[in-house]
Amino acid sequence: MPDWLATLLITVLKGVLVALALLTTFAYMTLIERRLLARMQIRLGPNRVGPMGLLQPLADAIKSIFKEDLSVSGADKLVYTLAPIVAIGMALTAFGGIPAGPPRSLFGENPWVYNLDAGLLALLALTSVGVYGIFLGGWASGSKYPVLGALRSSAQMISYELGMGLSVLGLLMLVGSTNLLDIVGWQAANSWMVVVQVFAFALFIVSSFAEVNRTPFDLPEAEQELVAGYLTEYSAIKWALFQMAEYVNMITASALMATLFFGGWRGPAFLNGVIPGIADWPLVWLVLKIAFFLFVFIWIRATLPRLRYDQLMRLGWKLVLPLALGNTILVAFYLAFLRPAGWGLWTLGVLSLLALGVLFVLSDRVRALWNVPAVHPGGGDARPRTRPAGGD
Predict the structure, then answer these.
(1) Which candidate in 236, 289, 340, 380 could, as Cys together with 67 as Cys, close a disulfide (CB 3.0–4.6 Å)?
(2) Alpha-carbon dihedral of residues 326, 332, 334, 337, nearest 10 degrees?
(3) Contacting residues for 391 by C-beta, under 8 A, at least 6 apart
């Protein structure tokens, strides 16, 4: 067998295994999330289908597959069908670029599907294409509510993509490469990036919540306001594909946060003194870090209320974007003036932590940037008016 054909077959096999692993994780993440939310809200959650409710994801899958797939008469049939496929396709493809271990550590093969020099840029580009699935799904439905949901979803995701991109720019300036393997290697040689770029991590995680449409940024599916947002007219397996895409994007965001800021597949180096080589075990540490961030996603959902749409947009444009730009300037100042003068990376870590501390201390004043509606030229404002008790 030619080498190119063997390489192609192995890559396809790894891609299929990653897709199956992600879809299986998605299925049981629905169960885990519902059980955790129930525990946090002092109730039981799903517990009837199978022992401890473990077959609930299988029951939901069977229901979605065999449920009647309603067709909207005014929809653009081709785009209406392709939109959920685009959403889940881009979500699955993006995860393939995440390295899960050292080269040749997975039965003699590389533990990733593809490795690009522009790895981080390619991954961000793939996740951005998922916006098309959301927008086209709303537009193709031929109904006003999905169109409204698609417009606000697209505006939200595009707005926070800017903050997300700028928040990692300082990281790229430190590493000098967009390759994810180089980023993990830099952290192994220096320290976890979160230590020297904690401010950037705070901005990145906020942007990630908005990118994957999770509470408190779940405006795309604001059921109380828009029936069900951009997927109002979808049912059965097409609806399930959109849900799959959201959860797979959440898993990808967790993997990306672990890779960029928490050392990727590598574990804490001091553990090598207990068990030699344990810090470099493939898959194990990355899976544990992904599980931690998935728990954080669920925890935040159970804790915070949804933002109003005007608050969400102001937060992105008036706070996250300027602060991400400020962090980039801070890193550039360190590289241009402090590092040549002999100041170590700890200096940047202290400055980054100080910036985050100042943001918390001034949180009451900063909140006015995004929480108070702007005054209209006519003299009124956008704040909701309440009718006095007993008035008419």
Answers:
(1) 236
(2) -130
(3) none
Beta-bridge mates of residue 65: none
Token pair in block for residue 371:
């929480």
Q: Which residues contact 188 (CB under 8 A, 6 or more apart)?
A: 263, 266, 269
Q: In the numeric block, which tokens belong to residue 139?
A: 């537009």
Question: How far, in Å, CA of 196 to CA of 346, rounded?
Answer: 7
| Residue 100 to residue 81: CA distance in whole angstroms | 33
Q: What is the 3-state secondary structure (H, E, C) of the chain?
A: CCHHHHHHHHHHHHHHHHHHHHHHHHHHHHHHHHHHHHHHCCCCCCCCCCHHHCCHHHHHHHHHHHCCCCCCCCCCHHHHHHHHHHHHHHHHHHHCCCCCCCCCCECCECCCCCCCCCHHHHHHHHHHHHHHHHHHHHHHCCCHHHHHHHHHHHHHHHHHHHHHHHHCHHHHHHHCCCCHHHHHHHHHHCCCHHHHCHHHHHHHHHHHHHHCCCCCCCHHHCHHHHCCHHHCCCCHHHHHHHHHHHHHHHHHHHHHHHHHHCCCCCCCHHHHHCCCCHHHCCCHHHHHHHHHHHHHHHHHHHHCCCCCHHHHHHHHHHHHHHHHHHHHHHHHHHHHHHCCCCCCHHHHHHHHHHHHHHHHHCHHHHCHHHHCCCECCCCCECCCCCCCCCCC
The pTM (predicted TM-score) of the whole model is 0.88
